[in-house]
Amino acid sequence: MITKHNAISVVLPTCGDRTTVGARARYLDISLRSLLDQTIPFSEVVVFDTSENQEIRYHSPYRKDPRVRWESAGKKIGIVDSWNGAIALAKSEFVTIFSDDDVALPTFHAQIQEGLRRSNFVCVPFRFVDENGDPVGDVRWAGKHESMDAAVFRHRKLVHSLELVLPGNVFRKSWFERIDGFKDTFLPCGIAYDDLFWIEISTNTTTVAFARDIGFHFRIHSDRPASRLRSLAPFQESIPKYIELVIRRLSDLGTSSGEIESIIEARQDIIDGMMEYHFLRMLGVAWNVGKLEPLRVLGLVSEYAWSSVSIQNKIKVFPRTFERFWRSVARRVTKVS
User: Domains, the chain, ranges and CATH?
Assistant: First the structure.
């Protein structure tokens, strides 16, 4: 019996410059190999070169591999244009965007196909790994959800109680065209570009499906845009404008007035959730560059916390205590950043 699979394009926008031996260039071939070694082959694997010198293909061992389609932006472009440009190149009915520094497990595509039996929007569980590929923290929500009401999904994304990253989620390409792709969110360092995108994509369905097992490794390193946040002050000031953008976009896409009202009522919860999440991420970056001495003295972080993810697991404060004091602590971090 031959099983029919949905046609899925996986696209990889890459900005790594081989001549400068950037981190993303070093990881690209690992990502490609993982996508080509699937138990179920993807319909197509597309690399979209957005680097300055446009020579990434010529240094890759997969430059002549017929399973890989190489496309070029013709010049260096920004992060939003690179994501939109990569998805626009997809020829299949369904598309998933994959990072050029992450690693797909062999059953990644199989997990997606299983999820597509339940919804046309599928999110795949993942695990954080460090620059060397070593696991950091727990697997994110594997086995915790099979499906979720789309309105609940949007609420949880807004208050940051559901951690979703850019790669590993599949959707209809026509939905991407309907919402007009990724957009600027008014937040520094490209924060929430993908959050807004997933919130908008979810308006095309009533149910979001979750794959049942881990599908890929999400690599944490200093070259990721959100890792460059060094001060919470401009970020905090930008959040209200981001919330207004979300409300406007959901209204434009036909979301019910009741859901819009619930978002307005949850405004402070959204601000608190975003600040807490990115405060913890900033702690990880600050730890790596040696600027956490005041926080170590306060006893807020442990001596063996070394990354944004591990700090979330090893933070020494109870959640309620953290919620009570994060604003004052954030001010201290801002002063040393």
Answer: 8-227 (3.90.550.10), 230-336 (no CATH)
Instruction: Tell me the pLDDT tens digit for each residue of 64-80.
Output: 999 999 999 988 888 89
28-52 average pLDDT score: 94
Statement: residue 328 has pLDDT above 70: no
Q: How far is CA 220 from the centre of its chain?
A: 11
Q: Say whether pLDDT at 202 is over 60.
A: yes
Nearest alpha-carbon partner for 128 in 286, 302, 289, 311: 311
State the SS3 of 162-202.
CCCCCCCEEEEHHHHHHHCCCCCCCCHHHCCHHHHHHHHHH
CA distance 168 to 321: 34
| Residue 193: half-sphere exposure toward Cβ, Cα within 13 Å | 20
Which residue, 158, 150, 148, 326, is CA-closest to 253? Answer: 150
Q: Checking DSSP bridges between strand 103-104 and strand 126-129, what pairing results, if any?
A: unpaired
Distance CA 115, CA 117 (A): 5
Residues in a beta bridge with 8:
94
Q: How many CB atoms lie within 10 A of CB 38?
A: 18
* Eight-state DSSP code of residue 123: E
Distance CA 285, CA 283 (A): 6
Pairwise CA distance, residues 116 & 114, whole Å: 5
Place of tokens 């059953």: 107
Structure tokens at 79: 């992060």
Q: Quick check: helix, strand or coil at residue 71?
A: strand
**pTM for the model:** 0.81
